[in-house]
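Re: pyridoxal-5'-phosphate structure - here you go.
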Amino acid sequence: MDLEHLTPRHIREIEPYVPSRPDDELKSMYGCRLLHRLNNNENPLGPPPAAQAAVNRFPPTSAALYPSGDAFHLRQALAETLHMHPDQFLVGNGSCELISCVVRAFCAAGDNIVTSDQTFAVYEWVAQQTAVERRLVPLNEYTFDDEAMLRQIDARTKVIFLCNPNNPTGTYWQRARVMQFLQRVAGRCIVVLDEAYFEYVEDPEYCDGMRLLDQHPNLIIFRTFSKMFGLAGLRIGYLAGAPNVVDVIRHAYIVYSVNSIAQAAAEAALRHAREHIEETRAMVREGKKLLRAGLAQLGLQYLCGEGSYCMIKVPMSDMLLYRRLMRRGLMVRTMTGFRFPGWIRVTIAGRAVLQQFIEALASEVAGPAGSR
Ligand SMILES: Cc1ncc(COP(=O)(O)O)c(C=O)c1O
C-alpha cells in the first residue's frame, strides 16, 4: 500500500495533537501522590448538583438505546432559558465538533477563515484538516485586532472566528466593539463568537452575543457545558444562530454524536445552575485576587482577564517549568503551542490549591540562575 499516495498533503502536514496521559500514568511518571489539574480550565467544583443527580438517575439499561438525534429536550430547555426558538440551536459533541461543522458547512477548496494566531487552536486545526486557508491575524495588545481582521476579508472569506473572552489571554471585546465589527463586516461572511467562558464574565459591558442574533443573521454563537457547568468529560456544547443558518450547518452535522447522559446532565445543569454559577464565580474572583497578589510579589508578568484562567510569563522554558510543577502535583498548560513561548496558563482553582501553586512557582522561579 502506498500510504503517502493515499494521504492528501494537507493531512500529511498536520502535526497531530498529543493529549496528556491519564492521571494514574502521570502520577507514577512524575512520582506525585496527588495531581491538581490546572491545565484545561475545567471547573474544580464539578457539575451542579442537579446535573450530578441526572447522571445518577440515568437507567443503565438505556445505554442500549440511541440518544435523541437532535437533543430535542435540551434544545427546548435552551429555548426557554434564553428566550429563543429551539430551531435556533444545534447541540454538538463539545463545541469542538461544532467548529468542524461550521467550517465544513461554509468552506470549500479555495475559501478562507480569519481568526487570530494566539487563540483557541481548534479553529485553525479544523481549517487545516479541511484544506481551508487560515488567515491568522496577530493580536494587538493581547486582544483580537478588529481593524487588521477586517483588512483580511475578501470574497473567499467564509467564516471569522472571534474568541470572546479569548482563550488564553482573557481579553475580550465589549458590546459596542462587537456591534461595530458586525456592522463593518456587513454580512459578507459568517462571524462566530465563541463564548465558551460566557458564564464567568462579570463585566456588565461584555457582549452577550445571543442578544445580537436578531439583527445579525450572519452571527453564530458557541457555548459549552465543559467549563462553568463542569461537564467536560461528557462532551457537550451548542451553537445558536438564525434558523436558516443553523439549518445549513445541520447539513454538515453527524446525528447521534451527543450521548444521552450528556443531554440529560446538560439540561439539568441549565435549569438549575444559578447557585453553582455564583459559587464558581466567587471562587474564581477570590482565586484571581490571590494569584494577582502572589504574582506581583514574585515580579512576574501576567494576564488575568475574564474567564477561569490566567497566563503567566515565566523566566524559564515553559516545558521545563511544567515538568518541575508536575513533580509537585500541579499540572499547568505550557503555552508554546499557543505561540506564547515562555508562558504558562493556569486554571483558577480553590484557595488551598492556588496557594500551593504560588508557593511552588515561587520556589521554582527563585532557583539557581544556571538552571533556568
Ligand atoms: C474558547 C474555547 N472554545 C471551545 C472550547 C471547546 O469546548 P468543548 O469542550 O465544548 O469542545 C474550549 C475548550 O477549552 C475553549 O477554550
